[in-house]
Design brief:
about 230 residues, alpha/beta, TIM Barrel, 8 strands, about 15% strand, Putative N-acetylmannosamine-6-phosphate 2-epimerase, isomerase
């Protein structure tokens, strides 16, 4: 089966995750859109973002593809957890929809397969956020357009320091098992060197978020090093 041109265009490229958490000073769609445009000017090939308002605002500000997701809740499956959430992301303007691809129970009782099948029929491009190689295998079998190491670390990127790097072992295993599937490295990519290492390990593309778009974390890293 031929690869969608949009997915093909991301090969070897940088995707920037532009997100701010509730209660943070940057937490407005307008600021997220401006930051996304700044990342686009810096060379980002796509923007990954969350929430319907952010998706719509960013889509109206950038020319590169938008990978949209909807975080609903804080535990279990909360990254675009249901078919309703995924369709809402599409309606908000997402070019690709990122979905939790683990086998954990979903709020609406649907299986991952039952969630994905209608989206595939509707022509929606979907990205699998995976935690393990089993998740990658499941996603590849279900026909996800991209798979990602997003969930392999178990905690949010903002909770880690500079010492923790990307999950290259999982990336390499996924690339080896599924040479025809675009495998994206996402999670704890803190430096250009780590991004390069991910591409060298076979990543189709690399997602960087905190190290580019989360100034609170960046400031805390510098502060911690000065106080070490």
């Amino acid at each position: 089966m031929s690869m969608n041109p949009l997915i093909a265009s991301l090969e070897g490229k940088l995707i920037v995750s532009v997100q701010a958490y509730p209660g943070e000073p940057l937490r407005t769609p307008e600021i997220m859109a401006a930051m996304s445009r700044a990342c686009e000017l810096g060379g980002a090939a796509a923007i990954r973002c969350q929430g319907l308002a952010d998706i719509a605002a960013i889509k109206g500000r950038v020319e590169v593809p938008v990978i949209g997701l909807w975080k609903d809740g804080h535990e279990g499956v909360y990254i675009t957890p249901t078919l309703r959430h995924a369709r809402a992301c599409v309606n908000a303007g997402a070019d690709i929809v990122a979905i939790d691809a683990t086998d954990r129970p979903r709020p609406d009782g649907r299986s991952l397969e039952d969630t994905v099948a209608p989206l595939k029929e509707e022509g929606v491009l979907i990205m699998a956020d995976c935690a393990t190689i089993e998740d990658v295998r499941r996603a590849a079998d279900l026909g996800f357009d991209m798979v990602s190491t997003t969930l392999s670390h178990g905690t949010a990127a903002i909770d880690c320091g500079m010492a923790d790097g990307p999950d290259l072992p999982l990336l390499r295993q996924a690339v080896e098992e599924f040479p025809g599937v675009p495998v994206v490295c996402e999670g704890r990519v803190h430096t250009p060197a780590e991004a390069r290492a991910a591409i060298d390990a076979g990543a189709w593309a690399v997602v960087v978020g905190t190290a580019i778009t989360h100034p609170t974390s960046l400031t805390s890293w510098f502060k911690a090093e000065l106080e070490r």
